[in-house]
Structures are given as structure tokens and as C-alpha cells.
Amino acid sequence: MSARETHQGTPPALTVSALGTGALLFDCAPPLSLALQERILMVAHEVSDLPGVEEAVPGMNNLMLVFDAARIDATQVQANVLQAWMHPKESRRAAREFELPVVYGGERGLDIEHVAAHNGIDVQDVIELHSNATYTVFFLGAHPGFAYLGGLHERLHTPRRAEPRLKVQAGCVSIGGAQTGVQAQTLPSGWNVIGFTDRQFFNPAAPSPALLSPGDVVRFRAVEALS
Questions:
Q1: pLDDT digits (tens, 9 = 90+) for 172-218
Q2: 6 lies in a domain?
Q3: Paired strand residues for 149
């Protein structure tokens, strides 16, 4: 069975790597899929309650478990994760839903025409396909608050830029390969920027600094298109 099957099917095997004495990394083979990420999120939720487990961190096709080796040993952690991977409980953190207003194109969406040309469609198609989809936060990475969103229509898949920009403004909506996301901080990026939203995605002074968490649902709402 393939990695694209739902979590009711047989999942791909996990490989396990030690990260020092207090962490294990569990990897499954690509391709990346919503079904696999949902399984990872369910397993993370389940094993995070084990005595001695300090943190469960979902990643791209992987899960990192940080644990207190004085309370639980690596062999036990591994056994629990592999059991949960094969037979995950149908539960995870309740997903929150976010609707993000987006101005597509313009100075903060300079690559929208490139995305259209790369995929043989026009700019309006890019806007409609991007804003009509429902996305799931697969994991956080790259920089604090940046969420990798799964669910991008295949007609919008666009390779990252050959030369990254040295400064991409926080709030820029972008496409990188088969995923989309929103720049959470003003930093360099090689993703293709197609628009801008005014939501704040990272506030270090807030009790929960990152706006989005793995498993959350995101929708983009087109409010304007600039040429």
C-alpha cells in the first residue's frame, strides 16, 4: 500500500534515529500527504501524554520526541510510538479554523504572474485556485511562526526561486513547491510571493507566540487583486 492511503490503511514504515540521549526522530518515506500528516498529528497527541515525554514535535513526514531519559528509556519510547503509528487513536488536538484576507498581486505579490505562467494558467486562475482551497497546517518550521500548509491545488505547484530574495515582508503569502504559507517574519525567502495578508503570525510577547499550530485549518479569502 502507498503512503497516500488514509490512516485506516497500512502506513509506510518508520525509521528511527537517536538525537543524543533524550530525543528520537521517527521518519517515514515521502511523498508528503495529508493522510500521513494527520497520522503524525494523531500519534504526537497520543504519545505526548506518556510519563517522561517532554515534547512531541511534528515535522515534514517525521515526528521528534523529546523525553527525560531518567523517567522513560528510548526503547520504551520507540515501542510506544511504533504501536501508535500502526494503530493510532482517532483523536488529536482540536483544530482551529482561520480565514485570512489576502490582497493578491502587486508589490507584495511579485511572483503571481510567474506562478501562472509556470502552470499554463492566468493570474485569475491562480487567485481562484489558491483562495478556494482548504489548507491544513502540517507543521511549523523555517522560522518562528511559519506554517507549512498542505492542500495546495496541483495546478499551482511551483518550484522555489533559483535566487532567494534577501527580504520578504511578514504577511506575504507564498508558494514553494507543493505547499503554500505566509511569511511570519521579515526575512529572506526563496518562495514565490503571490499576495499579502495583514494578520500577525508571530508575537513573542503573547502567551502562545505562534498564531497557527499543527492541525489547524486555514482558508484564504481574496479581497483585492493588484496588477
A1: 999 999 999 999 999 999 999 999 999 999 999 999 999 999 989 99
A2: no
A3: 137, 180
